[in-house]
Amino acid sequence: MFKEMRKVEKALGHVDVSNLLLKTKYGILSVIQDNKYPYGIPLNFAYNKDNIYFLSEKEGHKKDSINNNDKVSFTVVSGEDENESVILFGRAKEIFDDEKLEAVKLLLQKHSQKMQDFAAANQDAIKRSCKNLSVFKIQVEHKTGKYGG
């Protein structure tokens, strides 16, 4: 279903792929628009147990595209000299309830120490704010990583 990497000597191992996803803060979500053109959206994310989590407005282009075609790709590139990159393929779906709350906590944990402290002290405020946004999970079906140009 997915093509294998051509230059296998540059492939990152599973652990290196996971580490890059854990340390990288931003990635590019690629969706297919209604007009069949690809659309790349830079966003912050969290990675846990082979899933990517990200936020979305309740209405908008990103959500509409996913609702029309849940097949997506997600790319991250390290900002370091090694020039490591990972591309994931999977299906995106909106998540709800406890899973949504856990994803928001993962995002807060990854992106802001101040927000971590706030989240720990204000669980009710976090739950209330979750009502105003959508949270998506990409269930990874295939991933590859490589280093070098």
Summarize the structure.
With 149 residues, this protein is α+β, with helices and mostly antiparallel strands. Helices cover 34% and strands 36% of the residues. A hairpin with a 7-residue loop joins strand 5 and strand 6 (85-95).
Sheet with most strands: 7 strands, antiparallel
| Count, helices | 5
Helical content stands at 25-40%
Taking all residues together, what is the mean pLDDT?
88
Order of helices and strands: HEEEEHEEHHHE
CATH fold call of the domain at 8-95 and 134-146: Pnp Oxidase, Chain A
CATH class of the domain at 8-95 and 134-146: Mainly Beta
Structural class: alpha+beta
Descriptive report:
The protein has 5 helices and 7 strands. It has a 7-stranded antiparallel β-sheet with strand order 2-1-5-6-7-4-3. The protein has a domain at 8-95 and 134-146: Pnp Oxidase, Chain A (Roll). β1 and β2 (38-44) form a beta hairpin. The protein is of the alpha+beta class and 149 residues long. The protein starts with 13 loop residues before the first helix and ends with a strand.
Helices and strands in order, then pairings?
Layout: H1 14-23, E1 26-32, E2 38-44, E3 46-48, E4 51-56, H2 61-68, E5 71-77, E6 85-95, H3 97-111, H4 113-121, H5 123-130, E7 134-146
Antiparallel strand pairs: 1-2, 1-5, 3-4, 4-7, 5-6, 6-7
